[in-house]
């Protein structure tokens, strides 16, 4: 079903504002509640902030899932287990619905862009009230209105994205740290990956819209900005007046009030010297670079359609470390890609040993229907992939322990983000290099940047104590 609109972005935004107002009047005095569960990456997390912003504008308040009048699942399909989680939850949701038929269930996000999923929901889960995808998320208010006005299941999925609609209300999770989309979609078609099929072609937001949003965030007290895109290094290429990602970083750096700038994710094939210089020259840009490797085998990188080889990847690491010596490097690695031999896997271990990453997201290859790699004949047995996965974690940990050890006794500037979930006398935050740091502190420090001297390291996190500024301080 494709009911795509042809209004301009401004007309679409105005239509949403009107729908929110009508819903606000309809629900006034009823104190309706919602609960959103988000699976997947920061893109989805940020989309959920927009859904929450729309709901709060209408007058909904947040509530536990069991009690909420409206339950939303914002789904992910990058790997099979993300989808299994949703199917697992649907059983519970059916129970809620049986006990309270007025409760409304909404499914949205990447998984809904798959035809097989929609067929299954239509036939096996007819009690789900509203289903929409990634391209029409901005229409959430109008879709909600339609759902409340009509009986039966409402499914609205667009095959393609329309214009980027700006000016939706957004409920930010934190008051001191915010994500900002700079682009949507992906053109890279890595052969294992479903994202380009469910998020559509690459589209960049206009620099003026991005900068205006960041200025507003800075004015409201936000200190750290994370710029989001599937491949931020190709930001700006398709704009009427093309600009580069490095250019954008310089502009964001000029905004008063913003102390830290981060970004996710960079594709190695588009990592320019101009960007490396911007990393070196903009003090607000955090000394952290997430550079997905995927595999250390040039042969597999070719089969993955990544457009770089092992040597080129290692050369980029050298350049980054030459420009910003203390830079923290993190990565994504897939094991068990079709055709992966012992030799290929050893190439990955070799890169891991040589680079010594500061952290990594590691994945066992998951076969995604519709992607080229899903039909490669040489799929790897699960047990073999799992053995490689465990071995990879060991070798990654050796590098992380070594990298972390150099920080002991030094002072890192840590943005305190939350009270530690295991010990309420401790705070948890992130250093400039994105290290996870636990330290003694009080809730009033949340949102502040605290100098913390590191006492010990536990591979995946550091433990320290607050100190008065300056001693051995390090941009790490
Ligand atoms: N655009 C980002 C990645 C988005 S998906 C980039 O290119 O870096 C996040 C990570 O999920 C990918 O980097 C990859 O390591 C992993 N991934 C994607 N598809 C996968 C699959 N089919 N199986 C296992 N891991 C996968
Ligand atoms: Fe997926 Fe590759 Fe695009 Fe990243 S760059 S989202 S891994 S296709
Ligand atoms: Fe998942 Fe969609 Fe992100 S598939 S990883 S939520 S872009």
Features:
476 residues, alpha/beta, Rossmann fold, pyruvate-formate lyase- activating enzyme, OB fold (Dihydrolipoamide Acetyltransferase, E2P), 6-stranded parallel β-sheet, 5-stranded mixed barrel, 13 helices, 36% helix, 21% strand, globular, binds S-adenosyl-L-homocysteine, binds iron/sulfur cluster, binds FE3-S4 cluster
Describe the structure concisely for a colleague:
With 476 residues, the protein is α/β, with parallel strands linked by helices. It has 13 helices and 20 strands.
Instruction: Give start-end ranges of low-pLDDT stretches.
Output: none
CATH class of the largest domain: Alpha Beta
User: Structural class of the helix and strand makeup?
Assistant: alpha/beta
CATH topology value of the largest domain:
pyruvate-formate lyase- activating enzyme
What fraction of residues sit in β-strands? 15-25%
Number of strands: 20
Distance between the termini: 50 Å
CATH architecture of the largest domain: Alpha-Beta Horseshoe
